[in-house]
# Entry
Amino acid sequence: MSPEAADGAREESDRAEVRVGVLALQGDVREHEAVLRGLGAHVVRVRRPADLEGLDALVLPGGESSVIDRLSRLTGLRDPLRDRIREGLPVLGTCAGLILLADRILDAAPGQETLGGLDVLVRRNAFGTQTDSFETALVTPAFDGPPVLSAFIRAPLVEELGGGTAGRDAAVEVLASLPDGRVVGVRQGDRIGLAFHPEVTGEDRFHRQLVEAARRRTDDTAMERTARDMPCARG
Amino acid sequence: MSAPASTTPATSADAAQEPAAGTVRVKRGLAEMLKGGVIMDVVDAEQARIAQDAGAVAVMALERVPADIRAQGGVARMSDPQLIEQIQQAVTIPVMAKARIGHFVEAQILQELGVDYVDESEVLSPADHAHHIAKQDFTVPFVCGATNLGEALRRIAEGAAMIRSKGEAGTGDVSEATRHIRTIRAEIRRLASLTEEELYVAAKELQAPYPLVAEVAATGTLPVVLFTAGGIATPADAAMMMQLGADGVFVGSGIFTSGDPAKRAAAIVQATTFHDDPAVVADVSRGLGKAMVGISVADLPAPHRLAERGW
# Structure
């Protein structure tokens, strides 16, 4: 960790702790946990509906999207997950997580469904097989500082923005694209979907956005939450 | 593009600015995404579809499952490319395929076919009794078997991006899988307790490169994902491997030589995810039909033990 990052982590930890869940049915759960802990978040593994209690934000990790979809249905987790996302829970999905967050997908496995939450069309395995996987620097207008370096591993791609479901609370904005303009990162409200894996390259700025969204949310409802028997008061 | 010689993934500061395929991080990265999952051996497109529907995180394409290789004997080689392509067309999840130990041309063919991982596997007849494939130069990542930490680190030094403990393939007897995962994990714990001087001796004893030994001692873990394989036949076997510290499991003969492959495959997937919850493992273990009959490893004469292949 760089000295600046260490200062950042200390600064974060001085503030009220936020509870961030990581969907832990399958995939690179540990990598996301490490980034979130570095940002001072309290991390909870989510495998059952009860694990969603009291979460301020959620990460949908990389993994095999068809397997995570299948297990989320078997465990009765899918519907409560959909409800929480619809209610506005801040969510960050990477790779398989982007697929799970997409309202519409192409090249799905037979019977594969998504949780939804981002008004985008995402193509699964859009770059080809593993021999086509790569790492590269991205175009990320929202961030100052060093370029976002990231790993694309049998990655999906955002093929269309909007044009699907009506009545969303915010427009879909592009967070990251490849140098040729293809869209690989989007944000809609407090939901962020990335085709790549910032969590494997030590890139924490997207997770930082998630944690900040969670803090805004907890600050907004601090009074209410304090009254509701939360383990610690926020303010 | 060839992988860098370093065994440690590059940090953000030195990562390539231009798109780079086949880097250490990209090769190890796919294995990271498979964690918590089950990789299933399949011999045709139909089995591959059953495996995908049951929740396999990847399939391993091969001509004969290890139990049949064991029963039928003869030389076991890389599968026919046509079979591999049929399996690739049948599923959307990653497809792995096996090359013989040391057979770098079989590996070149598999890379050309666009498989997602090459398994340089002791289940096939070795093509080289001294050398493993030099795996750094390939774009496709490799998984290799290991019975102990030294063997695992030698494979990682050669460029393996994922390790599976070997177990004894094609037996349905989990005892060797247990021994190998326990051995590797115990040797890692031991390294973490050694002083710097002792680590040099440990590297000599493990017959593994010192930098890798020092890295494992410092981090308390392998630098790549560790799955387990060889003899897993039931949901309980898979859950035990996960509780012993595996990142995921390979199931070979155990699924498609059983009475109800689709049901057993799905049960093993759930038992792997909920390995620490006996209620779930008990629930999914009910009514699975006949398990693989299997052979006790104790009854196998040493020359027939596949785990002893690899050096």
Observations:
- Residues 175-192 of chain B form the longest helix (18 residues).
- Chain B touches chain A through 47 residues (CB under 8 Å).
- DSSP finds 13 helices and nine strands in chain B.
- The first strand of chain B starts at residue 20 and ends at 21.
